[in-house]
Design goal:
This is CSD domain-containing protein. By secondary structure, the chain is mostly beta strands. It contains no helices and four strands. The chain starts with a strand and ends with a strand.
Length: 58
Amino acid sequence: MTEGKDTVSGTVARVIPWKTGKGYFLNIADDSNDYYGFGKCKGEVGCFVELEVSEGTG
């Protein structure tokens, strides 16, 4: 695994596309963190996903 990155998995609870259409916010059931990504979300509500994440520096 690349240093500074981690893996998160779970069932998608909510996907909110950005108004700009350039990305999305994603929530996983039983996880209090909010995740975001660029482009189109590959997961759908109710699907199991495994994400490679890294802490933001922005």
